[in-house]
Amino acid sequence: MNGNLSTEAALARLLDYLRPLGSVAVGFSGGVDSTVVVAASVRALGAGSVLAVTADSETLPAAELEAARKLAAVLGAPHAVIRTHELECRDFAANAPDRCYHCKAELWGRVGRLAADRGIRHVADGVNADDLDDFRPGIRASDEAGVVHPLAAISASKQQVRQLAVALGLTNWDKPAQACLSSRFPYGSTITAEGLKRVEAAEEFLKGLGMSQQLRVRSHGDIARIEVPDDAIASVSAGRAGIVKAFRRLGFAYVTLDLEGFRSGSMNETLAPGDPGKKQKRW
Fold first, then answer.
1. What is the helix (H) or strand (E) element at residue 171, kind and residue range?
2. CB neighbours of 216 closer than 8 A, spacing ≥ 6?
3. Among 76, 80, 66, CA closest to 30
């Protein structure tokens, strides 16, 4: 999307892209990107031609699933929740840098079959133009499954997607970006159900203290590495005694605060120059 294009013109372009699809099943996480695609699809095609599909698994925080249910109801889109089983895939649980490919391969296969059963012509996701420049192995799986990317198709950046969300009257236009819980583990360390539950509980504890929703608890074995925005670092430090006590109850032996602060995809910083993610971001 041209940076000089008005939000109104961008929304018109998005609706023009969606109308010829006829009907669409949208992978719906409840984040800003997928919410914009669902809302715009309802406007372009009518609610009866749209299905929002949320994948429920151990990698999705329970709070995010509940938020997606409520949001789908507000949008007026039919909502389907499917159960996925990433941990049963050894390639996913092994947590190599292409972990997300194996997750999305299962997801889009399931969504595609559901769409076909319901006579829905296309499957769409919330990938935006900025995602194409990041390390996103899951996009390869979506492309292989024939998933369309409406936001990327109109070259909408993350910032522009938020502007579209405001134009569509969406209440979550400023929701911080979320990532599945498996992103909390260093590449090469096995992902387990117990580990996922532990980081989810640790993050919910911090949020219960009033911390920003934009935080991560990275799990390095028995070490917890807390990432929060720069302006929240002092608050974490001030409350460290209670945080350490709570995290040790969860099974962490050591609790650390990352002085670089929150940054999305920090585990990708360990990828060597020869890794696929350094060579070709999209894959």
1. none
2. 179, 183, 184, 203, 226, 227, 262, 266
3. 66
Residue of 277 and 156 predicted with greater confidence? 156
d(C-alpha 254, C-alpha 106), whole Å: 35
Q: Mean pLDDT over all residues of the chain?
A: 92
Q: Are strands 122-124 and 216-220 parallel, antiparallel or unpaired?
A: unpaired
How far is 202 from 243, CA to CA, in rounded Å? 9
Could you write out the DSSP letters of every residue in 20-68?
Answer: GG-SEEEE--SSHHHHHHHHHHHHHH-GGGEEEEEEESTTS-HHHHHHH
Q: Tokens standing for 132? A: 């194409």
pTM for this structure? Answer: 0.90
CATH numbers and ranges of domains, the chain: 7-167 (3.40.50.620), 181-263 (3.30.300)
Does 280 have pLDDT greater than 60?
no
pLDDT at 234 over 60: yes
Angle between helices 7-18 and 158-167 (to 10 degrees): 90
Instruction: Tell me how far apart the alpha carbons of residues 112 and 148 are, in angstroms, rounded to a whole number.
Output: 12
Query: Looking at this protein, which amino acid is placed at residue 183?
Result: S
Count of C-beta atoms within a 10 Å radius of residue 241 = 8
What does the pLDDT look like over 164-196, one tens digit per residue? Answer: 999 999 999 999 888 899 999 999 999 999 999
Give strand pairing partners of 50.
Answer: 24
Strand order in the sheet with 254-257: 216-220, 223-227, 254-257
Look at the alpha carbons of 192, 194, 198, 201 in this order and tell me if their dihedral is positive or negative: positive
